[in-house]
Design a protein that fits this description.
- The complex is a heterodimer of chains A (83) and B (154).
- Chain A contains 3 helices and 5 strands.
- Chain A has 83 residues and is α+β, with helices and mostly antiparallel strands.
- Chain A has a 5-stranded mixed β-sheet with strand order 2-1-5-3-4.
- In chain A, strand 3 and strand 4 form a beta hairpin.
- In chain A, 33% of the residues are buried.
- Helices cover 34% and strands 36% of the residues of chain B.
- Chain B has a 4-stranded mixed β-sheet. In chain B, strands 5-3-7-8 form a 4-stranded antiparallel β-sheet, with no helix packed on it.
- Chain B is built from 4 helices and 8 strands.
- In chain B, 32% of the residues are buried.
- The radius of gyration of chain B is 16 Å and the shape is globular.
- By secondary structure, chain B is of the alpha+beta class.
- In chain B, helix 2 packs antiparallel against helix 3 and helix 3 crosses helix 4.
- Classes of the chains: A alpha+beta (83), B alpha+beta (154).
- At the A-B interface, loops of A face strand 3, helix 3 and strand 7 of B.
């Protein structure tokens, strides 16, 4: 599974993208975020407040309850500030 | 509806972009150009050195195209052009262009505002500001979310 981070979340995790093997007990975005948070102190900081985090699965907005699959591209990012 | 969506580092020519919206049946063209401000918004003393825009390639284009399609369902539009720049930009440089063309002015005005409001809250771009005191990520504004509400009520 490909995971992407943007803006300050990328700075905390120290990587823009990473390839992970989806653990069998991880079924939703929320569970995935908990798992990723355990990877490093930086990951934990980036994902500590999920209320302020936006998620996209395969480049479409998703929610914390959305199911995830091994071949998905999941992106975590802060609220957007373009325009 | 003729749609052009462009996300790139290069600057754009507002005049040329507006001209490109002319066409058969078009009686009104509305456009919005977003420009990098000189200050970071916390006060005139915080002089902005530069703004860096990061985005999520592919999803950005997909989201903007989706927003434009939604505008096309709400208003009778002949053409829409959206250009959003990424990378490092200096104060007074262009950031974003939204141009809409229709038979009448209401559709052109309203759809351009609609597209900008949605772009600001849905298109995956992030701004980082550099001032004399260092660099910081811009926080999302509640007023931008509130701007969306007015379109939902209609």
């Amino acid at each position: 599974m490909k995971i992407l981070y943007f803006a300050w979340m990328r700075e905390h995790t120290g990587c823009a993208a990473e390839q992970i093997t989806l653990p069998e007990n991880v079924k939703t975005v929320s569970e995935l975020a908990s798992y990723l948070g355990s990877l490093s102190a930086g990951h934990q900081t980036a994902l500590r407040n999920l209320k302020t985090v936006r998620v996209a699965i395969n480049r479409k907005y998703a929610s914390l309850e959305s199911p995830v699959r091994a071949d998905d591209e999941v992106a975590f990012f802060p609220p957007v500030t373009g325009g | 509806m003729q749609v052009t969506v462009l996300v790139c580092e290069d600057d754009f020519d507002v005049g040329a972009e507006t001209e490109a919206l002319r066409g058969t049946g078009v009686g009104a063209i509305a456009s919005f150009t977003g420009i990098v401000r000189d200050t970071d918004g916390t006060g005139p003393s915080q002089h902005l050195i530069a703004l860096t825009l990061e985005h999520y390639p592919q999803m950005t284009e997909t989201e903007i195209t989706r927003i434009v399609a939604e505008a096309g369902e709400r208003w009778p539009l002949a053409a829409v052009r959206v250009i959003h720049r990424v990378g490092r930009l200096a104060p007074q440089e262009n950031i974003v262009f939204v141009g809409t063309a229709s038979a009448h002015r209401d559709a052109a005005f309203e759809s351009a505002a609609f597209i900008m409001d949605y772009l600001k809250t849905k298109a995956p771009f992030w701004k980082k500001e550099e001032t004399q005191e260092g660099a910081h990520w811009v926080d999302a504004r509640l007023s931008d979310d509130e701007a969306l509400e007015k379109w939902k009520r209609r």
